[in-house]
Amino acid sequence: MRLFVAVVLMVGLQPASSQAVPYDLEQFRSVLDDSKLQAPTSSPTKINQGKFRGAANEYFFLDESKRYMTFTVTGDSKRSELRQMTGDWDTATQTPQRLLARVRVHVPETPGLEQFTFLQIHDKKSGDDGLNKPLLRITRRGDYRKTQDHLWAAIRIPQDPSKPISLDNLATKNIDLGPRPDGFFDAEIVIHQGRMVVTIEGETKVDMDVNYWNGLPSYFKAGVYNQDPGTSKVEFESLVFLDTFDKPEPLAVADEAADSAEPE
Questions:
Q1: Residue 254 pLDDT level (bands cut at 50, 70, 90)
Q2: Exposed end of the chain (fewer CB within 10 Å): N or C?
Q3: How far apart are CA 117 and CA 228, in angstroms?
Q4: What distance in Å separates the CA atoms of residue 60 and residue 187, rounded to the nearest whole number?
Q5: Among 179, 75, 185, which residue's Cα sits nearest to residue 119?
Q6: Which of 199, 31, 209, 51 has its CA nearest to residue 135?
Q7: What is the pLDDT of residues 120-167, one digit of tens each?
């Protein structure tokens, strides 16, 4: 009887998923403590803020080497994304808002998946206020504007710059960020005093006035979000949200020798 009780207790202590857990790695804890996971749809929440310890699933896990936080999802308009919870900052912020990532973007095995998003700035819908649209989506696109396998920034702008941005005054500006790197690369998004800057591998790709977005509380998102049918996948070696221009503290990265029409 005692043996049976012990076995039951041990089983009860096992995590719900057999996947390796991203929260086990120190370098991911700060971003996970500041996030919830939305998968495979935005609601209900898949993992709530403060519940990442011991949590992994088919959409969110460590890769086989147990070094990289991995996001994957299948299906048009499906997602597996971290949503920043202490966001709701304004683009006019005097305090810099930064997303820093070292990320690997995989080519979809499904030919029909021409576009998926892996980093975003999104505004918050609050009652009748807010657009509930992304200011910025950083995407991988297969065949687009005579390019193959490039990264793109899709940026919401007012169609008529003389009028406030609204659902009736909305357009998208697409900026080519260059060919998708084969391996891991550094990406940074900065919002500060009405300007948005996007850098890839230390090179500034976007530097623009976004004061037209002022008054729309916003937050960062990171993971995968499909704009077409198919399966997407990205891996993060590191990911942090910061509110300072200071360099981030060195992160404890796992041992290198360890087992290796747009929907909104």
A1: very low
A2: N
A3: 11
A4: 20
A5: 185
A6: 209
A7: 999 998 767 889 999 999 999 999 999 999 999 999 999 999 999 999
**Residues near 103 by beta carbon (within 8 Å), at least 6 away in sequence:** 118, 119, 184, 185, 187, 234, 235, 236, 237, 239
How far is the C-alpha of 162 from the C-alpha of 159, rounded, in Å?
9
